[in-house]
Design a protein that fits this description.
It is a single chain. Helix content is 48%, strand content 12%. By secondary structure, it is of the alpha+beta class. The chain folds into 2 domains: 88 residues, Phosphorylase Kinase, domain 1 (2-Layer Sandwich), CATH 3.30.200; 238 residues, Aminoglycoside phosphotransferase (APH), C-terminal lobe (Aminoglycoside 3'-phosphotransferase, Chain: A, domain 2, Alpha-Beta Complex). It has a 5-stranded antiparallel β-sheet with strand order 1-2-3-5-4, with helices on both faces. The chain has a two-stranded antiparallel sheet with strand order 6-9. Strands 7-8 form a two-stranded antiparallel ribbon. Helix 7 crosses helix 8. The longest helix is centred in the last third of the chain and has 28 residues.
Length: 339
């Protein structure tokens, strides 16, 4: 193993006041963070390696402490050294939510149960009080636009090699502006920002929540669309709308909701387009810049989400046509994806 791994083992041993700590690899993610498990009889902990020159762990630490104190099931902080980029956390286990979900099953009981848990936890997140030592960034116009720009910059131009005309650039600019306006007009709440089935852990009757360090104050449909229109799984439209309505009903006692379900569903759909434009660009960037090619398999599904949703709204018909005529053929050629 590398030097940081050896340094992490030494740090964990010192933190636990033991002679030696052996760590086993748990996983990495789309960032530069790495996770390891320490086990001894009666105890299992997670050690996080987040190189400080590449990852700022202060938000994770502040939010973990604040959210856990307010009843959200996030990892407990056992030991923290921000200068080294080492964290020791409680262990929420290995059971990701994703394998429990099967949209092809004639009985969607598992989805009903686990999404009910996820929506209950999400409702709690949206009503969290601010941390005393950390102010959430705003999901503002600049951030929304930077995220959507990843789609033409990394997927269309760098990955697919498309030479966009001025008309196409203007079409994307107008579409992005419409999506930005919709996002900013929504009730603004605490947003996890990556609330999907690979960041939710099955821990008894309450889901564990990880990867929350990029939380912001933003649109109230963002996390719900991340969950229900997950880049890694597709549900029938009727089932998805039913869950969407379930969450809207959960908001009945909250001032932070749209005036009608129809408006909520429209906000949900347009928020999903914004998120999936960002995600498709990020997946391409992970491959091209970071050498993480596994995410390429998720791009066709993610773009199909954008196509299907945009087709339902007259103001996005030109975008739908562009995606169908220019982007889907490019995906088929470069990634072997079926359009």
């Amino acid at each position: 193993m590398d030097q940081r791994y050896q340094a992490l083992c030494t740090w964990v041993a010192e933190a636990l006041e033991i002679e030696k700590a052996e760590l086993s690899v748990v996983s990495g993610d789309a960032s530069f963070r790495r996770y390891f498990r320490f086990q001894q009889p009666g105890q299992s902990l997670i050690a996080m390696d987040a190189p400080p020159e590449k990852e700022d762990s202060n938000s994770f630490v502040c939010l973990a402490r604040s959210w856990r104190e307010q009843g959200v099931n996030v990892p407990a902080l056992i030991k923290v050294d921000l200068d080294k980029g080492f964290l020791l956390l409680s262990d929420l286990g290995d059971e990701l939510l994703l394998p429990y979900l099967n949209p092809d099953s004639p009985v969607i009981e598992s989805g009903n149960k686990h999404y009910a848990q996820a929506m209950k936890a999400l409702l709690k997140i949206q009503s969290l009080k601010p941390a005393n030592d950390y102010a959430l960034p705003l999901y503002d116009s600049a951030l929304l636009q930077r995220e959507m720009a990843l789609f033409p910059d990394w997927l269309l131009e760098k990955k697919l090699g498309l030479d966009l005309s001025e008309d196409e650039r203007q079409l994307l600019k107008a579409s992005f502006h419409a999506l930005e306006e919709s996002a900013l007009a929504q009730p603004q709440v605490v947003v996890h920002r990556d609330y999907h089935a690979r960041n939710l852990m099955v821990v008894g009757e309450e889901l564990g929540i990880i990867d929350f360090q990029d939380a912001v104050q933003g649109p109230n449909t963002y996390d719900l669309v991340s969950l229900l229109r997950d880049c890694y799984i597709v549900w029938p439209n009727e089932q998805l709308e039913s869950w969407c309505r379930d969450f809207y009903d959960l908001l009945s006692d909250s001032a932070e909701r749209q005036a009608s379900f129809e408006q909520f569903k429209r906000d949900f759909d347009l928020m999903g387009m914004q998120r999936h434009l960002k995600a498709a660009g990020i997946f391409a960037r992970l491959s091209l810049r970071d050498g993480k090619h596994g995410y390429l398999n998720d791009i066709p599904r993610t773009v199909q989400y954008i196509v299907k949703v945009s087709a339902a709204y007259p103001e996005f018909q030109e975008l739908t046509h562009f995606l169908e005529q220019r982007v889907l053929p490019g995906l088929s050629e470069k990634l072997g994806a079926s359009s």
